[in-house]
Amino acid sequence: MILFVKICRLSVTLVAGLALGANAAETPKPVKEVAKPVKEVDKQVDIKQLSKKVDDVVVPLPNEVFGALNKLGGVNWREYVRNEKVSNFTERPRIALLLGAVIADGFIAVQAEDAPTVKEIGQRVLALAKGIGVGNSITPHAKAITEAADKRNWVSVRQELDRTQNSVQQAMNEVHDEKLSQLVSLGGWLRGTEVLTAVVNKRYSEEGAELLHQPDLLVYFESRLQSMPEYNLKLLQDIQGALTEVRPLIDVGNAHISPASVKRINEITTKLGDAITKKS
Amino acid sequence: MSASLKSVLRLSLIACLLGFAPGGRASVDDAQSFALQAAEPYVKEGFQVREDYWGGDLAAGEKKAVRQQLFKGNEYWFWLGTEVETAKVSVHVYDAEGKLVEQSDGWQKGHFAGAHVVPKSTGSYFVIVEIEQSPEERTHWALVYGFR
Predict the structure, then answer these.
(1) Fewest CB atoms within 10 A around its CB: which of A129, A188, A261, B108?
(2) Looking at beta carbons, which residues of chain B come within 8 Å of A166?
(3) Given an 8 Å threshold on Cβ–Cβ distance, is A38 in contact with B90?
């Protein structure tokens, strides 16, 4: 048997060597340079046939909406940086929501180019991830966030924050904690929406308010919360109620989202944000 | 070398080769690495490529629609890849009414494809992925996206 294992290992080395040799001989060109334009494409499709329900939604990162908001101009991101200490919680769903919110705070601190806060947030994320049992997957990212913030390399910090969230969620999914993973996304979305509405409320524009037009994401989060009856937490019930209230305010079809709606959504998400970060 | 040792060597080589055979241990993760390869040149152009991605497997000729929230003001690229190198894949983006919304610089090259979108409004869009041709019964695919 030992002989077999040794021979097998030798064969593996041989095969891997051959494969590497073949790769080295044929260095691929970047895909973009050799690609051809697409041929005839259907200009119109029946979406209802192809997509019957909202599933597999990739929840946008907070900085996707912040980037779009920034292009409208005039945002003083320093006003929205949050760096106060957050409470310690033991309930895993609460930690998951908080983790998402703190990562969103990281993106805000990047927009503000506030290196000390970015570094603090990196450490806070690590502490929260440890609290939920997925600290190991975050340690290298927390280190990378600190290093990139020291160099004021904001592109890298953004990338590391995305990697952090992804690693946390992957680690949760691996131990079949998908619901906690969804709460991380929800926590980030709520904090992102709180800041988006605060910015637009301060200086209303139809373009800024339009960024709130995210009805399918609300449907997605509502359906996910409904599938978590085992988390008997008042906060989750409050979030569910809030999403139900927010949906008609943003699901306005081709109409504009009004200043009053923006203000109301800001009140709702600010209240939820406080409930996520502070002990009641 | 004895005959029995030769047989063991031959058997072990076959076993190891099977383990390395394309598709033998293929997964959506492999498909993702190809989608990321397609995305690579765009990073230099300032696109932030998301870590999150969609994936699955489809039969040849089969399509899948995934919903994506896009924000007006941002610019997006979607990249599709599969590890089945002889497969042909495509990706296209439609709005909520089913109207094609992508820019004309989208491309398709065998087991890679890309679609470029500059959304005219904020809302839900549909990214349609298709395995147009493949020698496999089911072909893994992965879709990644980037924005700036």
Answers:
(1) A261
(2) 51-52
(3) yes
What is the per-residue DSSP string for A93-136?
Answer: HHHHHHHHHHHHHHHHHHHTT-HHHHHHHHHHHHHHHHHTT-GG
Q: How many helices (H) and strands (E) does chain B have?
A: 2, 9
Q: Is the pLDDT of residue A11 over 80?
A: no
Domains and CATH numbers, chain B: 3-147 (2.60.120.380)
Q: Which of residues 175-214 of A touch B (CB under 8 A)?
A: 207, 210-214
B17 CB neighbours in chain A (<8 A) are 11, 15
Three-class DSSP labels, B23-67: CCCCCHHHHHHHHHHHHHHHHCCCCEECCCCEEEEECCCCEEEEE
Q: Find, in chain B, the residue whose alpha carbon is nearest to that of A72.
A: B73
Interchain proximity B99–A43, CB inside 8 Å: yes
What is the pLDDT confidence band of residue B112, given thresholds at 50, 70 and 90?
very high
pLDDT of residue A20: 39
Do A12 and B16 lie within an 8 Å CB cutoff?
yes
Residues of chain A above pLDDT 90, percent: 69
C-beta atoms surrounding A222 within 10 Å:
16
